[in-house]
Write a structure and sequence with these properties.
Blueprint: E1 2-10, H1 13-43, H2 51-56, H3 58-64, H4 74-97, E2 114-117, E3 124-126, E4 134-139, E5 143-148, E6 156-165, E7 168-176, E8 192-194, E9 198-202, E10 207-209, H5 213-216, H6 218-229, H7 236-263, E11 271-275, H8 279-282, E12 289-290, E13 298-299, H9 303-316, H10 318-332, E14 335-339, E15 364-366, E16 373-375, H11 376-394
Parallel strand pairs: 11-14
Antiparallel strand pairs: 1-5, 1-7, 2-6, 3-4, 4-5, 6-7, 8-9, 9-10, 12-13, 15-16
Helix pairs in contact: 1-4, 6-7, 7-10
Length: 397
């Protein structure tokens, strides 16, 4: 299996300048390759330029501009061209699927934050010293950069990436490892229901509170955004205001990640079914309603209320939690399965009666057929567990 490690780098002032120059030159290469594809399609009889053709030109580009393009790793530049090729592949895939195309865009220097090295030892060299917390990584054109290795890297390092987040620099390693030993059997199964009032409710009746990190940081973010809006574009003061907003957003993101890691239930349970929520559809804006009596006018469609719900859904971070849950379950040898979420909170776990009236309020479940009463989220988690067990039983061995 492949596992990723993210470590904080501590470059010197000169190394930080060199890393910025590396990102700038790779960004220039990316934009130049994109411009070539655009020009070839528009002006040369709709000709498509592929990655192989652009990769062949790298040797000439490096010879023409040795001070900028020639000083960096050849393989990292190929990775940048592959990145553009993947963007075009995704563009054509979305067109074929009938989705919003999203044509690849030019990248500003401030929006190009990652450089990939496809192979350890080719343009970069990771010092895999297992017993030292501070080690080094060598990048072509930059030198040996100190890295805070907060945990040991297990397995053979395959790829290395440099990533800039604000004023900090990180490196991301991917290592190939043997399949880990599964955790001892816990002898327990649990179904989970995710929501906005409670972040997570289990079929055992346990409610995990929603931390609402985004809502707690909303006032500080609002003040930072207002300060940013008053700054003159291109000024040093505006750059500081942008960094302040980005810092607050990064803190909220890290808080969500930390909560998701601590909330995963893989140590206590062997089998965890969950609702297969379509988060993108749930957080979509409501369609406008044209007023038939007034051309050009629209009827109320509840967009303001839906916007508040969308913020709560995004703040909960369901997608982040499910990604981490699946990754941890794979490493621990646990089984995680997604089930259909329809009517999970409207079906009585006692008699099986399904009706909208079974849930008179957000928290209350009262079956109109048999009179069973419980918390609506607990009922949903119980139905998720039963559906997951039935699906696991129906799967071929």
């Amino acid at each position: 299996m492949i596992r990723a490690y993210k470590f904080l780098m501590r470059p010197t002032v000169g190394q930080a300048i060199a890393l910025d120059e590396m990102l700038r030159d790779h960004c220039s290469l990316y934009n130049g390759a994109l411009q070539e594809r655009r020009d070839a399609y528009r002006h040369v009889s709709r000709t498509s330029v592929r990655y192989g053709q652009q990769s062949v030109q790298l040797k000439e580009i490096r010879a023409f501009d040795p001070d900028r393009q020639g000083r960096w790793s050849f393989s990292s530049q190929q990775a940048t061209l592959r990145r553009l090729d993947k963007a075009f592949a995704a563009f054509f895939r979305r067109i074929k699927a009938g989705d919003k195309p999203g044509y690849p865009r030019f990248r500003g220097v401030g929006r190009f934050d990652t450089v990939d090295f496809p192979k350890d030892g080719d343009g970069c060299r990771w010092d895999s010293t297992p017993h030292e917390r501070v080690t080094r990584v060598r990048f072509q054109g930059v030198g040996h950069v100190r890295v805070h290795q907060h945990r040991a890297v297990v397995g053979k390092v395959k790829t290395v990436s440099v990533k800039r987040e604000g004023k900090r620099w990180y490196m991301v390693l991917t290592a190939e490892q043997a399949e880990p030993e599964p955790l001892p059997a816990a002898g327990s199964v649990v179904g989970i229901d995710m929501g906005t009032a409670s972040f997570l409710t289990t079929s055992d009746g346990e409610h995990i509170a929603n931390p609402r990190h985004g809502r707690k940081a909303a006032k500080r973010l609002q003040a930072a955004q207002q300060a940013l809006s008053r700054c003159k574009r291109g000024s040093k003061r505006r750059r500081k205001a942008v960094e302040r907003v980005a810092t607050l957003h990064r803190k909220v993101r890290r808080q969500r990640l930390d909560h998701a890691h601590k909330t995963a239930l893989v140590r206590e349970h062997d089998f965890i079914p969950y609702e297969d929520l379509k988060i993108r559809n749930m957080s979509a804006a409501p369609a406008p309603k044209p007023d038939p009596d007034r051309p050009g006018a629209y009827l109320p469609n509840g967009a303001a209320a839906k916007a508040g719900l969308n913020r709560s859904i995004a703040d909960a971070g369901w997608g982040v939690f499910l990604t981490i849950l699946n990754a941890k379950a794979e490493s621990a040898g646990r089984e995680v399965i997604a089930v259909d979420p329809r009517n999970t909170s409207r079906t009585c776990p006692e008699c099986g009666h399904t009706a909208k009236e079974n849930r008179p309020t957000q928290e209350t479940f009262h079956c109109v057929a048999c009179g069973h009463q419980a918390h609506a989220d607990t009922v949903a988690a119980l139905n998720v567990l039963r559906a997951g067990l039935a699906r696991r039983k129906a799967q071929p061995a």
